[in-house]
Amino acid sequence: MLRNKNLIPLSRQHQHALALCVRIERAAPIAESQLARWQEEMAQKFEEEIKIHFVAEEQIVFPAARHHGELSPLVDRLLAEHKLLKTFFTKAESKQLRADEITDFAHKLSEHIRTEERELFERVQYLLPPGEMDRIGSELNHALEGSSQSCSLPTPKE
């Protein structure tokens, strides 16, 4: 199914995060001499984009999904994954990650994104009416304004 235009800003940010995951996976095993550089990049990516992205999902998309009881277990799982991923970012910021943890982080973040894209977003755009999706899109654009790589929805032609 094509991605609903109102979720595209999140999907584009997912692509940015997946690019980081691919780069980490290609660099594995991470050399000891490269640990600091990777952790700096992870911390910077979190601060500039992912932190805002997580908040937008947690405050806008997840509550809308919860209105459909069948999605509650999935939302619970994604929230738990956000919490786990935040611990990786916190450790990266204080340069406490080992090389294998950086690789583990990339795998977990990649799987998390794929779950959001393939399961949550697919179901949300199928279950929610167009007006609700438009409201979500408007709120996401506002919430993602502070993100360094936020993507706005195309302006409708008059």
Which key terms come to mind for this protein?
mainly alpha, Four Helix Bundle (Hemerythrin (Met), subunit A), elongated
Question: Secondary-structure blueprint of this entry?
Answer:
Elements: H1 8-27, H2 35-66, H3 72-93, H4 99-127, H5 130-143
Helix pairs in contact: 1-2, 1-4, 2-3, 2-4, 2-5, 3-4
What name is given to the CATH topology?
Answer: Four Helix Bundle (Hemerythrin (Met), subunit A)
Record field, number of beta strands: 0
Main CATH class = Mainly Alpha
Strand content range: under 5%
Number of helices: 5
| Main beta-sheet strand count, sense and barrel state | none
Helix-strand pattern = HHHHH
- Separation, N- and C-terminal Cα atoms: 27 Å
Which structural class best describes the helix and strand composition? mainly alpha
Percentage of residues in helical conformation? over 70%
Q: What are the low-pLDDT stretches, counting only 5+ consecutive residues below 50?
A: 150-158
Q: What number of structural domains do the residues give?
A: 1
Mean pLDDT: 93
The fourth-level CATH homologous superfamily is nmb1532 protein domain like
What is the global morphology?
elongated
Rounded to an integer, what's the Rg over CA atoms?
16 Å
Name of the CATH architecture:
Up-down Bundle
